Amino acid sequence: MDSLDDVRRRIEVALKLDAGGFIFFGAEAEAAGRLAEEILAAAAGPVWLAADLERGAGQHLRGLTTFPPPGALAHHPEAEEAVRVAARSTAQEARALGLNLALAPVLDLDVEARNPIVGTRSFGSDPARVAELAMAWIASCQAEGVAACAKHFPGHGRTTADSHAELPVVHASREILQADLAPFRAVAADVACVMSAHVAYPALGADGPATLEPAILEGLLRSDMGFEGLVLTDALNMSGVREQTGAETPEVAALHAGCDLLLYPPDLARAVTAVEQAADASKVVAARLSESLARVGRIVTRFPSDDRSNGSMPDDLAEKAAAISSACVATVGGGVPGWLDPERPVRVATIWDDREEPARVPFGLLFREMLKTAGWDVLPPGPADPGVPIIVLVASTPQAWKGTSDLTLTARAALEGILAGEHVYPVLFGHPRLLQGLGHPGLCAWATEPGMEPAAAWQLDALARRGAN
Q1: Residue 232 in 3-state DSSP?
Q2: Distances from the Cα of 20 to the Cαs of 183, 207, 418, in angstroms?
Q3: Are residues 103 and 19 in the same domain?
Q4: What's the number of CA atoms in the CB half-sphere (13 Å) around residue 193?
Q5: Are residues 101 and 180 located together in one domain of the fold?
Q6: Does 164 qualify as catalytic in the annotation?
Q7: Which of 82, 302, 378, 408 has its CA 20 to 30 Å from the CA of residue 416?
Q8: Which of 225, 194, 169, 235 is CA-nearest to residue 401?
């Protein structure tokens, strides 16, 4: 983890190179706010301050509010309203720190069970439903003065590989891909920004990643769909784009293809030099650069990062987020078994199957504490006791570089070993189809955001007491 001084030095270098914006990863909210102020004071003009905010401002800005992922929100009894609350609150908290670009929502369809990177990040498999909820998210976010970014065009949902590690190729026909394009088509007139996918689509006339293909960005997105907003690349440090260009650098190729903003080049100085040299050598590249600069300048003025006065955060935001999280937790494969009794002792076991370690508190701690608050006798960690039920918490979510949508072999073996016991109930923090694949009833809590553990415990308590009565 870089120190704050190291970050400040990199910011200073980037500003001297006239960087158009900055992206925040895993920062304390207070520190992020200070850095945003410093950037805005030092920048020569308007800049984009962005973060991946698919699951609330707290996803990458610790101390702020987190929400369930889009897949969970889509299962909320009042899904559209839950999406609007999540988007509005996310934008309000981001705006209060000076951020003006939310890299969300995901418009990819959840249509491929083997997809290692989409899953719960998607609003679902139905293009019309995804479009409806995406529109609600975008409108609510942008009404609070924060630009939304629809991703990953023209659709990452059918991939079986992770573009962080390699170039995925989608072999679906152009006819089938119309479903993937439908949500983007629906939001094209309203969303401020679209993120390109480092994915190849031969049926759309593109053998290379969409980020580098004019047929996809200029032809399909701009000419066919009439999109007039910004095109932002997915991160340019990813292998899905880094290893695919010939004579041109990925940065120049992306600009040439129709991208306006180049996200996270691994070497900023080299990227700037490559773009300047290409513009000097080619009138076509120079024209594209001028076009992009004009577009960026026009749109960033709609979302000024130095105006933190837009909107006010509700006093009951934490309560709203907790209520939404709880309503998204659902049983899979049947109800809570009768032997899971709030009046009897239980043990809570945990299996962490994600690549990244939990950044806030040990996995399972918030679940245990909430159960205790609800009156359960939660025994301390230890060996299984005959007759004492086990609640096993399993974390398995879509993550970069993880390489699989399924449980890893180690986690699956551990889980199946525990499930072989007499009284075991799984609570999954991941996609419900993982529970369905186990053929075992359980509770789905969707994600490992801090709010999901208390939500799962609260819902389990309510269901168990309802069953006991």
Answers
A1: strand
A2: 28, 30, 51
A3: yes
A4: 32
A5: yes
A6: yes
A7: 378
A8: 235
Question: Is residue 431 annotated as part of the catalytic site, yes or no?
Answer: no
Instruction: Looking at the structure, tell me whether residues 274 and 366 fall in a common domain.
Output: no
* Rounded-to-integer distance, Cα 45 and Cα 127, Å: 39
Same domain, 217 and 156: yes
Which among 180, 234, 260, 461 is annotated as catalytic?
234
CA gap 287, 285 in Å, rounded: 5
- Coil/strand/helix, residue 450: coil
Query: Between 317-328 and 79-97, two packed helices, what is the crossing angle to 10 degrees?
Result: 140
**Residue 321, in any domain of the structure:** no
> Is there a domain that residue 308 lies in?
no
Range of the domain at 339: 329-468
Q: Assign 440 to helix, strand or coil.
A: coil
Write out the E strands in 154-258.
193-196, 200-201, 206-209, 230-232
Dig out the tokens for 123 from the structure: 């609003």
Return the SS3 of 107.
coil
Element (H, E) at 93: helix 79-97
Helix (H) or strand (E) holding 149: strand 147-153
Q: Residue 325 is encoded by which pair of tokens?
A: 């999280």
Catalytic residue among 75, 164, 256, 431: 164
Question: Are residues 351 and 434 part of one domain?
Answer: yes
How many domains, the chain?
2
Same domain, 195 and 343: no
Within a domain: 352: yes
Paired sense of beta strands 330-332 and 442-444, if any: antiparallel
Is residue 189 domain-resident?
A: yes
